[in-house]
Amino acid sequence: MQNGEETVAATETVKPEEVTKQSYRVKVWRHLENNGLAMFPRPVYNRIPNFKGAQEAAVKLAELEVFKNANTVKVNPDKPQEPVRVLCLEQQKNLYVPVPRLQNGFMNRLVLPEGETGPAAIKKAVSRNGMETYGKPLSIEESVSLDLVVMGSVAVSKEGYRIGKGRGYGDLEFGLIMHMKAIKPNTLVVTTVHDCQVFDTLPQELFGPHDVPIDIIVTPTQVIETQRLSQRPVGILWHLLSNRRIQQMPVLAQLREIEMLAGRDCTLKEVDTDIEDRGGSRARRQRRRTRSHKSQSEGEGNTTEGEEKPKNRRTPRRRNSQRSAKENKENKDGDDVKEKPRRPRRPRPVIDFSVKISNISPSTRVRDLKQALIERGVKPQMMTWKGFRGFCYLHFYKTPQKGEGDNIQPPNMESIINALSQMCVAGTGDETSEKPRLLSVEPAPPRNIIRPVTPAVEQPPLEVH
C-alpha cells in the first residue's frame, strides 16, 4: 500500500463525508494485521504500529547525513522506533525520550550506567522500564538544542502530512519543545514507517495548525524527502485544549502558569471534546466490581437466608466428595461400579519437514534466533538447538496447531528457505559480540525426535530441545 490505493480498492468505498483521520488509521491498522506485517505489541489498533522491517528502516535512517551529523536526538518511546534509540546510544548521541502520555513529566535523557555500554545494557535502556530507570528528567525551563526529531506515525503522505494514533501526544510534545526553543530552523523531523503507511496524498482539510509536518520519511526500502506543505506549530495552542487535558498532564499546567505570568493569552476551550476511549472501559469494569460487591454485602447483612448463600456455592463440591465416598464404599463391598470411559489419547503431531540453519556464532543465544525468525514471519513448532556447535534444526508439523485460523496456508520447505535467505544474526552474549554472521539454510533429512512431542500441541508454538 505504497500510496494507499491498493487498500482502498480492497475495501468498501468510503463516502467523502466519512473521510477522517480515524478512517485512515483503521485502514492502515487493518492492512498491517491482515497482511502479516504487524509485530509485537499486537493488535496494532490504537497504537503507533510496530511493523516488520523496523530494524531495516532504522539502519537506513542511520545512513543519512542528517543522522550522522546529529549530536542530540529526540525519539518517541514507541516500539517501532526502538531500533532508532538503540542506534543513538550505540553511536553515543545525546538521546531524549518523552515521558509516555506526559503524565509524570516531560522528557528524559537516557544515560547508561558507567561501564555498562554493551548491547545488553543498551537493549535494556531503550525498553519501557529502562527508559524510566535510566532516564534523567528534563524540565521545560532547561535549555536544550535538538539536531533531529524522530516521530512515530500511523499514516504519512509525501506532502509531509502526518497522522498519529489520535491522542495528540506527539503534537503536544512538539509544542512543548518549540516553547523551549529546542527546535532550530535546520532541525529536521523524521518518521520511520512501513511502506504501506505512506500515501501519495492526504486530504489537506483534515489537518490544522497543531499538526506536526514531516520532513523525511524512512521506510525499510526507501527515503522520501517530503514537500512539507504545512508550517510547524509555533507552540502550545491553548484554545484547542480542555481543562481536563491540562489536569491530566501536570507539565501543561506548569507551562500554562508560566505563560499566564508572562501576560500571554492561555484561554482554554469551553467544551471538552477530547475523546478518551480508555475512560469508558475503566468505568465499565468499575460497575461490574460494584455489582459484585453489592450482592456480597446483601448476603452478609441478612440473617438466615443471607448466610446460606455462600454455602450453596460450595454444595456441589461436598456432593461430589460424598458421591465419591459412597462409590468407594460400594466398590469395597463388591458392588459393580461403572467406570467412566477414558478419553482417547491425542495422536502425536507428525513432523512434515525440517530445516537446518548453520554458521551460528557460539555467542548467539536462542532468543536472538527466535527474534530473527519472528521478524521474517517464520514460526516453527519445535526447534532442536545446537547453537554451541554452530547449527540448529527447525521442525514444522503437518497440521496447524490449535488456535490457528482455517484460512492460513501451511508452510512448505521452499517458502521457509526463501524467507530465511540472507538472514544474519549477531550474538549478544557479551559486550565483545562479533559482527552479524550470514546464516546458511538448507533442507534437513527427516529426524526421529526421541522425546514425546504430544505436549507441543498444548504449549506455545515454539518448543526448544
What does this structure look like?
- By secondary structure, this protein is α/β, with parallel strands linked by helices.
- It is 33% helix and 17% strand.
- It is built from 14 helices and 18 strands.
- The strands form four sheets. An eight-stranded mixed sheet has the order 4-3-2-1-5-8-10-11, with helices on both faces. Strands 17-12-14-13-18 form a five-stranded mixed sheet, with helices on one face.
- The longest helix is centred in the C-terminal third of the chain and has 29 residues, at 304-332.
- It starts with a helix and ends with a strand.
- Mean pLDDT is 77; it is low at 1-15, 276-311 and 450-460.
Anisotropy-based shape: elongated
Spatial strand order of the main sheet: 4-3-2-1-5-8-10-11
Strand content: 15-25%
How would a crystallographer describe the biggest sheet? 8 strands, mixed
Work out the helicity level.
Answer: 25-40%
Low-confidence sequence ranges: 1-15, 276-311, 450-460
Number of helical segments with 4 or more residues? 14
Mean pLDDT: 77
Structural class: alpha/beta
Number of strands: 18
Our measurement of the CA-to-CA distance between the termini, rounded to an integer number of angstroms, reads: 40 Å
Rounded to an integer in angstroms, the radius of gyration calculated over CA atoms is 29 Å
